[in-house]
Design a protein that fits this description.
159 residues, alpha+beta, 11 strands, single chain
């Protein structure tokens, strides 16, 4: 009898703390090149309101996984890091915390600085002398992020 009374509480406890399902999934060709990480192949981008997961495959095997949550960034090549630690180790310590998430979601960077709207998306050119030189475009189904100072290229062509 006590078990039956506890059952609704147990169900709420077990399902209330679970992760939200991904609301969208996109197949894409993904290039992720930084001084420390280099992958380029077909993959998937999974999104919900709070988290983002990127998987890059080669020969049917997951080569690289990147998961961005509100608190951290986790990859298959190293343990979870704070967003700023991820930027420092993989991208650039000068970037804001949410940079990688904004890129993969195709959102404007740095509060829309130097944003030029186009008929089919937008572009941004952002320069901070000695720290970064960013060219970023979200046009049609293609996202291209290039930082020539930090030698970073992230290209996403959604299929």
């Amino acid at each position: 009898m006590k078990f039956i009374q506890m059952l609704p509480f147990l169900l709420l406890l077990l399902t209330g703390c679970g992760t939200q399902p991904y609301l969208s999934q996109h197949s894409a060709f993904i290039v992720f090149k930084t001084p420390t990480v280099r992958f380029a192949d077909q993959g998937f981008i999974y999104e919900n309101k709070e988290t983002l997961k990127v998987e890059i495959y080669g020969s049917g095997q997951a080569l690289f996984t990147l998961k961005v949550s509100p608190e951290s960034v986790c990859t298959s090549t190293f343990s979870c890091l704070s967003k700023q630690a991820f930027n420092t180790q993989v991208l650039s310590g000068y970037y804001p915390e949410n940079m990688i998430e904004k890129i993969f979601r195709g959102k404007p960077l740095l509060d829309g600085m130097n944003l030029k709207k186009k008929r089919n998306g937008f572009t941004q050119k952002i320069l901070l002398v000695g720290k970064y030189a960013i060219e970023y475009s979200v046009l049609n189904n293609e996202i291209v992020f290039r930082d020539t100072i930090n030698h970073i290229l992230i290209k996403i062509k959604k299929v």
